[in-house]
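Exercise 7. Predict the structure of MarR family transcriptional regulator from Haloarchaeobius amylolyticus.
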Amino acid sequence: MMSTGEYQQAASDELTVPDELSSPQAKLVYLSVLVTEEAEATDLQQMLGLSKLTLFAVLESLAARDLIQRTGDCYVCQ
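Solution. The predicted structure, encoded as tokens:
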């Protein structure tokens, strides 16, 4: 998991959300995976406070759009 300083450094870099994402939850999950570079679903759930049902629906939607990819137990941005 990233430290606060690492989050601040990542946030200071240019972070962009694909235009096709309109849902606030999809944007939040996408940016969280982007900033962490590789995230497990349980880490995302704890970090974002989303239910498993909601989180997995968003992850599945992002993967279907080829914006993220599942690599074993983790998710990474494409």
